Amino acid sequence: MLEKIPSILRNQCSLDPRKPIIVGVSGGPDSLCLMDVLRTADYHIIVAHFNHKLRAESDVEANAVEKMASRLMIPCVVGSEDVRSHAHTGGLSIEEAARNLRYGFLFNQAHRLDAQAVAVAHTADDQVETVLMHFIRGAGLTGLKGMAYRTLLSTFDSDVPVIRPLLDVWREETVIYCASHGLSPHYDPSNDSFNFLRNRLRHALIPTIETYNPRFREAVWRSVQSLSSDHAVLTETLEAWWKKCVIQETDDYIMLDLSFLSTRSSGLQRNLIRRAVERLIPGQETVYAVLERAAAFIADTARVRMDLTGGLVLFREGDALYIAKPDAQLPFDRWPQMPARQDSIELSLPGHVDISGGWRFSSEKWRLPALAWEQSARNDDRFQVWLDAEGLPERLELRVKQPGDLFEPLGMKGHSQKLSDFFTNAKLPRRARDRWPLLCSGDLVIWIPGYRPADDFKLNQTSKRIVYFALTPPQENA
Predict the structure, then answer these.
(1) What is the CA radius of gyration of the chain?
(2) Are residues 184 and 121 both part of a single domain?
(3) Of 23, 254, 259, 402, which residue is most buried, by most CB within 10 angstroms?
């Protein structure tokens, strides 16, 4: 499959021959093949070798890579760190620690040398092994589609891509390539160690499965091609749903439209939640069980909050679903709130006042009772109301709640309840209650914007004098 490489470099990897590329070279056959393929295709490459210091031969191998690059007149950079110490300090496996330090080194060099990409030598065999590891761990389509020719590893760098031009090339082909092009790869004995899951797959599981299907690796490779195409379609579709569902997105939280999301399939819900997690914590793996619990949470309207993954929390507030970091500063501008340090605002009729977040409270008298009755009957905006003015007190104010406030909601027929109980029953988010604007006259609560007016001031067909009140959000006042 090596004859396809020039096309892959141009099209799938989107490389510019005029810009430098950092090439990760361990000294094995895969990385030497990648280096030489890029060199002979006239790309501007810089060899980068990371010495893991895990074996006695590590320094010798690093020197061998430097000498080879010098002989071929290719620029070379070498880095090293104590992988074992990093693993111990961070509570990581040796594999994880080595990968983190290696990629950190490669991307640091890419920035230092203004490289367009970091090239690594993952082969078709690596692709098969990676997909099997994901399958064993219970991954969904995102994991089973395998690695891509070009991708951003946001955990390491959000600007410089990593490219994998050899994903269609089998490991045996790289060995043959090196032999026929005078390249002398070194042999890494750690590749035979059964201490690593990838090696156990390579040397034990795959050979066993091949006794049932001798072409098992090719079968998995073909499945990856198919699943990659399916994933591309899913991603395109998901992007459209994402735009419809997202209300607000910051570095600390994502707010989704719960009324929209709750009517969608659990499969779409799971994918949207996974996407939100990935955007808040790039590289965070979200297992199926967590996504299933999230879908169940959306369906269970009695639940308010749940832990998600990676320290994120999932919670509902009215018609909004938040995926947020624990210390996220959540917005108040979706609700009307009284201004800070101003607990009461006297109102004139007609007139208007501005409150926090660009919200505006306005009032006016209506002289056509029939029209007011018609508009009120058709109204579905919770933040506007038509009231009978006959019993309205002359002095009106907009104020915050006070201890002991009582409210006689429309429909209660003379029965009042504590305002705090009304807020609880109405499921008004707790953090919005203290400064929620109330239309009042002294202790008398006349209307709770967004909810109901008091029963004594309800509009009826015999009303002669009518007053209209409204709270309008910022976008309508612009």
Answers:
(1) 32
(2) yes
(3) 23
